[in-house]
Amino acid sequence: MARLADYFVLVAFGPHPRGSGEGQGQILQRFPEKDWEDNPFPQGIELFCQPSGWQLCPERSPPTFFVAVLTDINSERHYCACLTFWEPAEPTQEAASAEDAADGEEELEDGGRMRLSPSAPAPASQLFAPKTLVLVSRLDHTEVFRNSLGLIYTVHVEGLDVSLESVIGNLLTCTIPLAGGSQRTISLGAGDRQVIQTPLTDSLPVSCCSVALLFRQLGITNVLCLFCAALTEHKILFLSRSYQRLADACRGLLALLFPLRYSFTYVPILPAQLLEVLSTPTPFVIGVHAAFQAETQELLDVIIADLDGGTVTVPECVHIPPLPEPLQSQTHSVLSTVLDPELELADLAFPPPTVPASSLKMQDKELRAVFLRLFAQLLQGYRWCLHIVRIHPEPVIRFHKAAFLGQRGLVEDDFLMKVLEGMAFAGFVSERGVPYRATDLFDELVAHEVARMRADESHPQRVLRHVKELAEQLYKNENPYPAVAMHKVQRPAEASHLRRAPRPFPRLDEGTVQWIVDQAMAKMQGAPPAVRAERRSTVPSGPPMTAILERSSGLHANSARRLEVVRNCISYVFEGKMLEAKKLLPAVLRALKGRAARRCLTQELHLHVQQNRAVLDHQQFDFVVRMMNCCLQDCTSADEHGIAAALLPLVTAFCRKLSPGVTQFAYSCVQEHVVWSTPQFWEAMFYGDVQTHVRALYLEPPEDRPPTQVGEALAQEEPPSALDVASEQRRLWPTLSRAKQQELVQKEESTVFSQAIHYASRMSYLLLPLDASKSRLLRERAGLGDPESASNSLVTNSMAGSVAESYDTESGFEDAETSDVAGAVVRFINRFVDKVCTESGVTSDHLKGLHVMVPDIVQMHIETLEAVHRESRRLPPIQKPKLLRPRLLPGEECVLDGLRVYLLPDGREEGAGGSAGGPALLPAEGAVFLTTYRVIFTGMPTDPLVGEQVVVRAFPVAALTKEKRISVQTHVDQFLQDGLQLRACTFQLLRMAFDEEVGSEGAELFRKQLHRLRYPPDIKGTFAFASGATHTPGRPGRAAKDKGPSLSAPRTLSRNLMKNAKRTIGRQHITRKKYSPPSWEHRGQPPAEDQEDEIAVSEEAEPSTLTPSAGLKPADRLTLSSLVERACCRDYQRLGLGTLGSSLSRAKSEPFRVSPVNRMYAICRSYPGLLIVPQSVQDNALQRVSRCYRQNRFPVVCWRSGRSKAVLLRSGGLHGKGVVGLFKAQNAPSPGQSQADSSSLEQEKYLQAVVSAMPRYADASGRNTLSGFSSAHLGSHGKWGSIRVSGRSGGPGVGVDVGSRLAGRDVLGPPQPNGAPPDSGFLRPQRAALYIIGDKAQLKGVRPDPLQQWELVPIEVFEARQVKASFKKLLKACVPGCPAAEPGPASYLRSLEDSEWLTQIHKLLQVSVLVVELLDSGSSVLVSLEDGWDITTQVVSLVQLLSDPFYRTLEGFRLLVEKEWLSFGHRFSHRGAHMLAGQSSGVVPIFLQFLDCVHQVHLQFPMEFEFSQFYLKFLSYHHASRRFRTFLLDSDYERIELGLLYEEKGERRGQQACRSVWEHVDRLSKKTPVFYNYMYAPEDAEVLRPYSNVSNLKVWDFYTEETLAEGPPYDWELARGPPEPPEEERPDSSAPQSRRRVVWPCYDSRPRAQPDAISRLLEELQRLETELGRPPERWKDTWDRVKAAQRLEGRPDGRGTPGSLLASTVPHHRRSLGVYLQEGPAGSTLSLSLDSDQSGGSSASSSRQAARRSTSALYSQFQTAESENRSYEGTLYKKGAFMKPWKARWFVLDKTKHQLRYYDHRVDTECKGVIDLAEVEAVAPGAPTMGAPKTVGEKAFFDVKTTRRVYNFCAQDAASAQQWVDRIQGCLSDA
Questions:
Q1: With contact defined as beta carbons under 8 Å apart, do 842 and 753 qualify?
Q2: What digits encode the pLDDT tens for the residues 342-351?
Q3: What's the rounded Cα separation, in Å, for the pair 682 and 668?
Q4: CA 1222, CA 1129: separation in Å to the nearest integer?
Q5: Are 1790 and 1769 in contact (CB under 8 A)?
Q6: CA 1491, 1496, 1498: angle at the middle one, nearest 5?
Q7: Do the beta carbons of residue 1331 and residue 1728 sit within 8 Å?
């Protein structure tokens, strides 16, 4: 029984002590005056009576009632029912001062009584003071309180004949039962009657209608939001103008939280004076009057619910986790159905008659039922995760959070995680975890109704039925007796508060009230205590828990087959069948990603442990440890699925013998997992084990105690759970004797203590590393270094920290390193021991003993480990994955053999799976190899799910641009040490972490060797030079080999130079020597057979004979002819710029001539030996002209247009005193000319000579008048100045950026865009014959040529350093080192734009097209930019490529690169930073930029190029790789000095690796069409004008693609996988496969996996030919035949052009001539193009076709890849060179090509050597020499004598020998 009311208090208005306008509450009287012993009087009641403050009112207000809640220091709630009414204030109250306040209540009352008479009229300014009746109770019976206080007020107001004292006395003495569903009628003695019903179970909250009201006010979503906020411990503030509403809302919210109890600050009505409480840091639920809303605005972390406005405001900084799905949506839908029952019927065509809505009280219970169901679903099975730690004297229970979350499948769920960690749940466990107690509705629901709720999920009607059933029970709990007799309580009359009160509320007689109370107390003491028989029982556990949502885990779903694989593998391991186990291991590791397989593994391993020990051999041990590690690596720190818990006993059981007396246990190999350093894991494990032992304690019944019936019943079924045992023991506890109870307590305590010792050992096993010096592992661990580590427990640490520290100092470790580790472990274990022992009630003596033991346990274990560590170091290392050795090129040697590394993922997400999907190929485990040529990583993905894919990433050492150390965060299986990131300019990135076995010394050695190889001291150290030496050892001296006629070298090459050249070819190291030109008379030594690049020019001094002529001596002519073999000369000859064999008179008429002035590289080191200059300029003048130009690179002709005869010249930029000075001097030579002026004069003459050499012609269409040129696109006032900014276009237009002009952004309209008037001299009738494209910075202030024969076009170009910076950014954009902050294409595109690479490409293409237009219109152009070897080379090469179709063939492109890039001295070594000297300058990829431009043009004109995109990528890769000598050194001069221009010819070439990239390309082209473009169908003489806007440019896939399957595909020998037999060779290395194949992005090469249609057909042809037993035909022959046949078929249509093969597939407008300028805005100022219709008169198709045919005939002679013609073939024996044996070869006589070729055998596709018949002087019978075949007769021998040497042949017999001789002579006579 309990008192209905504890105190009755009368509180009145009193003046404020400080005299302010506000009053304050004063307690007039309180009953009883003495505090109850069990319940002291609560403080601060006067504040809560008037929460808004005590104030006087100008008018009478009706009485108000509300219930405030006060919480005392013991968390007991006191309900203060307050009834307030107003009485007229007395003058003393109104004008009260501080002194009056002290006079006490008596005088106020008496004075008031005298002054106020009932009949006296109220004064006009009458004020009213509040007075409050307060009832304080610990019970929550709001309606009873309202009635009782109302009755007291009624007695006073209505003047009933009842004593107020007796009413109050009765109220204070009224007692009612607490719970149990009893009904009690009470009367306060004023003729009233009230019935009080107590709830059936007091654990269920009583809510009346408060929950329903809360939903009405706020709505479903808002209430759910508040519900989640309260559970996850957020601050909640209610606002309303009604105090009662605030109280109801708070009560309703707490009722929803059942079965959890809210344990934080709970103040439904907060007084105004206490508003600062809202700033408290702890969570709360508080109600505040809406008048104070403004004060709540600045609260940043408070959720505000406005009950009157129906809103809930959640601040931005607060995150409320929602309920886990599907519970959130299910709850929402059920709530909406309950609140609006008609929702389900709203759509029915024939709605049933309206269902009567539930009453508000019933709806309230239905809403609560929904939340009760929700908790039952959330916490289903919670009892299975309870750990009973102690049973006696009081149960100690812990909850295993991690296991609960894991089994419910809610590990990631934020909401449940926070709920379980909250205080409310802690209270729930301690209150409801008890196994033997009274049960309630929730216990029944969670134990028995779970299956029903799961079944009902998809049936809304059944859910609703269940909700209604639960609601009935909740309603019955609150109202157990529905037929309640009506209350009878008097109420005051209507508007009674407006009547004049007869008198103020009287002062009551304390004595009377106290006497009534005392009487009742005496009666109570006399009566026997009413003990309520509490029905206690064992709490049902319910079914084991299931996942809240049955998620199929997709990839890791474990089928029975997988579990079988795991079981088989383990049985193989223990049966010793290691090979079988090895086969299964990858599949097992893959299966262990799934939970079921991990559980299966632990169960299987348990079967193999006998008596807690299992000794294995080394291999078995390795297997078991590896599987354990695989299991543990996916365990989180909390170990939700109990895998680490199941493995913990196993890691201390499995062991191996290292040596006698030294045993290594598995725990020393599985320590590197975060779970071991998590205190919560150890606590859960400890409590679990303690529970098992405590249960065992009671399961073995002692002999003296017979087993109870319950025990028997349980024993027959399954053994009872720990909770059942505990429940039974709690039931029996009161019946046991005191001694027996004491004994049980002691037993339990010692069980806990022994487990604590056991766990101290276990923890030291798993926390102390095998190598104690590795203290860094411990520092990195989460829990160890952190003294305030989190805990799984609900009780705070008692004596943990301080004791642990103090005992640690006693351990006395000597060694600093060890004590660091040991100290950390001791502290960790001590904190753990303190915590669990305090919670489990271990005595303080035992605890101290434990603290003394822990350091000793740790120290002993350290000593044991030292021996284990020492012995384990002697074991052979664990067999890591076998290193995959990379395939090497011929001549490539390993410098550092495989260093074990992990290849880590970089910013390219494809390799690591990423958004594109695909397997996680990275990280991969393998090794890095450093060879003389490459850095190669080969390995396999660490993710076992990927399978055994080989991952290869490699790049040439020479391409390395940046190497930096990185710190490795990720650890793959082990802790890794240093990392290294290598970035290459071939767009490869290696992010590696070295394995621990490599060590820092190994990593440092790798870096040093890499650096040494990357930057050799000189060119001899590069792979292209060093590799050859290994293949041709001990070569004899050159002199002995010379068989040819002794050709005299010109005296210009000194003996010194010749010696150097020889030594080079003998591969001896030389230093470069600078030489001066020696005397002309002195002859050098005779050249060797392959020194064909020597220079021979006539020696006469007169200029007339400087042109090579027929008057030369035969020897000189021969040398000249070998010189002409150089690329430039061959090209000049083709272009008709300079010939050697013509007569003197004809040479005179030629406008240009070949000048040998630079034959000794004396004028310009970086130019070739032969140059094209105007015929009229003397050689001696060239020396002076060259001084005006940078690097002496004076203007020379490099190309001439076949149609307009305009020439393209190139030079370096001008020196300050060049053309600039010349133009400023205005051609007025002063009398005293200096040397500089004379140079300038020479230069002017030179330019004049160039102009004079131009053919002058003009046709009727005004083609080369500027007006005609510009009118087509510019309108009449167009302006050339939009591209060129020269002095002629005065005004502000000069400074405009030429880039924007070239892009065509200038607006046309007024006569001049810049505002200047139109220039009358601008539209002059004649064009300038020569345009000089120069750098704007150089040509500033230059005046135009007065004669207007040439004109300056200043343009802005970027410098080499800008290219370098741009390339760095491009590398980072395309191959980022780490993932972008924001994934997706946006960041990639942004970084690409920042690099400005495409902008530079755009500028290059723009300038090139400008030059193409000028040349095409008949003007010559001199490109004179920077030093003449970077941008000049790019522009000049692009111009020729766009203008001349020949350069778009394979042969032509080679010629272009050899001529413009190699001969004209682009500094490849310098720009590629190939030598040690160039290290600081860095890589500047000028050539790569040119190739990118070609790639852009190729994309736009795919049918105009004979070579494929792969060809460009191949050159891009190898220009930086240093594999070939082609792209080494900076000029021809340097190559001659090293003897590189004396390339070896003839048979020896085949025996070694190709030195020249062109040779390599030729060899490959014969085997495979990889460099050939099938779409090649050129329009003859087409000039290409590509679009150059950045929007038209594409990022080259060379920068972004990679194939991890084989590394970069540009080393063709390596990229094709294992070598195939020759007859199966296929063009694209991919056999036709019928079955489908998965192609992974970034792993496979897509073109290989799926070759294009033509490649596939050629492959198929080869395959079929092979099957038929025929030698497969070469792909080129087949292709040419097909094209020829197609051409013939096309004849009848009159469209016999090669273009018709594929023309239909290409839009025609890209073929036209005038397309280029359509890309800008309509009024583009750069309208340089000429429409094909204006090309001059008729454009009839017939004439164009004729022109095409003739030009195709012209160019066909330069195509090397022509089909093979075999006039005669057979086998001949050939004598090798000096001292070499005879060998049988297959010879082919080719009349068409005028060659005798030989091959190794008949089906060989690669030609081993060629004898050019043009060089054959005689064919004669020969004589047998030493080593000749013995079986043939003497007449079978014959010799072929060439200009170079004599070849000895031997046929099979005399007849065939004669036939060969006849055939060869026939060919010679035909020629």
A1: yes
A2: 888 889 898 8
A3: 18
A4: 32
A5: no
A6: 90
A7: no
